[in-house]
Amino acid sequence: MFPLKATLSLLLVIGGAGAFLYVQQSGAAAEATRRSIDTHLEVAGRALGQAWQLDAQALRVLADGLAQTPSLGTALTRPLEHFAGPDGTLPSAEEHRYQIHRLINEELMVWKEKLATGGRHGPPELLAVVDAGGLGVGLASDPAWFGPTAALGAEQPSLVPALAAPSVTHTVWLHKDAPLEVAIAPVRVAGQVVGGVVVGHRFTLATAQRSKALAGAEVAWFVGPRVGQSASFGPELAQALSKALADQKLHEQTSTQDLTLNGRLYRATFGQVGTDPQPVGFVALVDLGQALAQASEPLTTLLLVMGGGLLVAIALVLLFFAQWVKPFETLEKGVMELINDNKDYWFDVKGGGVAGRLSQNLNIMVCHLTGRPLPDDNERTGS
Questions:
Q1: Is residue 245 part of a domain?
Q2: Which of 170, 200, 230 corresponds to the end of one domain?
Q3: Is the Cβ–Cβ distance between 184 and 159 less than 8 Å?
Q4: For position 286, what pLDDT does the model report?
Q5: CA-CA distance, 225 to 215, in Å (whole number)?
């Protein structure tokens, strides 16, 4: 019973100490993991913000360069007389608009060809020319786009104010239900705004994948509370993120915080790159649950190894204890025989250790008590 109690006590003490150390080290590992993730997300946020600024500047330069094309201003301001018939008949307002549209389309085709392989985002998805009132005059992707049916200014309220701005405007639109980064450059003739050039790139999966490679984390771009197709992860997670943006107004924040999406815990940083007409920005996500599990995995492995080593050590201790205690159990049995009046009992524990010497002394004591002859030298030495 004693060996069992001693073993259980030892096991409880060592197990408790191991559990305490495991909890302590797990907490330290989790805290270190959180700090590392926060640092990573901080760097990622800065990188995404800087990349956005570089892309915005490149888009502004492109739009401004196209707006400065001399032939563009000339085409937009062609008077009615320029399109008069052979007999001097002036065209109608609709015909006049069409003729200018035709000239602009020629310009757009030249630009489209030049931009076919340019820029790190490839050719712009939106390349349009509008008049000073925001009506479409020409669209590179649709030769028939112009006039009242192409009221881009009515669709995008920020367009007409941007045409009156002193410099190129950079903003984000929801165009055909998808986020679109645009630059709007006024076209001026003799100091007067006569139209504008609109150049835009869509937020797509490719955009998000480039952002993911830059940030080293999952990335989604949002316009207001909407994520759409501009996420580097699947639609289910994107939908959950959109709901969280709307419910918690996260698109209006710039912070790093825990975020639960579809039952999984993430660490997320939010950054804004614009607020007109609604917040525009990015979310960089790291799977915090997975990161914490990976951080604690070495500790778990170490705990299992230590536990296995402890069990082996206890087994060896028990084996040694059993071998050491066995001779004394034999002596205890002999003493009980004497108590039960078995005076013929002879202690027969061999060896020169404590148990062997005690066995010889007990035999001598029995001889003195019973009058039996003393053991000879061989019996004294236990050989």
A1: no
A2: 200
A3: yes
A4: 92
A5: 21
For position 173, what pLDDT does the model report? 84
- Closest CA relative to residue 261, chosen from 282, 285, 245, 237: 237
* Residue 221 included in any domain: no
Q: Are 201 and 181 in contact (CB under 8 A)?
A: yes
Q: Is residue 366 part of a domain?
A: yes
The rounded distance, in Å, linking the Cα atoms of 6 and 43 is: 55
Paired residues of 138 in beta bridges: 129
Mean pLDDT, range 354-365, rounded to an integer: 81
Residue 148: predicted pLDDT: 85
Instruction: Count CB-CB contacts under 10 A for residue 310.
Output: 15
- Tell me which of 148, 175, 200 is where a domain ends: 200
> Residue 267: what are its φ and ψ, rounded to 5°?
-105, 125
Contacts of 254 (CB under 8 A, 6+ apart): 270, 271, 272, 281
Query: What mean pLDDT comes out for the span 321-339?
Result: 79
- Placement of tokens 């330069």 in the chain: 61
Query: Of 359, 265, 267, which is closest to residue 41 (Cα–Cα)?
Result: 267
Place of tokens 């999966």: 205
Contact (Cβ atoms closer than 8 angstroms) between residue 314 and residue 7: yes
Beta strand 147-151 with 169-175: parallel, antiparallel or unpaired? unpaired
List the CATH number of the domain containing 178: 3.30.450.20
Return the residue matching tokens 């001026």: 188
Is 5 within a domain? Answer: no
Bridge partners, residue 222, by sequence: 281
E strand spans, the chain: 126-131, 135-139, 147-151, 169-175, 178-189, 192-202, 218-223, 256-261, 264-274, 280-287
Under 8 Å between Cβ of 112 and 129: no
Give the tokens for residue 59: 């888009």
Close Cβ partners of 177 (under 8 Å, ≥ 6 residues apart) = 228
Residues composing the chain:
383
> If you average pLDDT over residues 160-177, what whole number do you get?
87
Structural domain range at position 365: 343-383
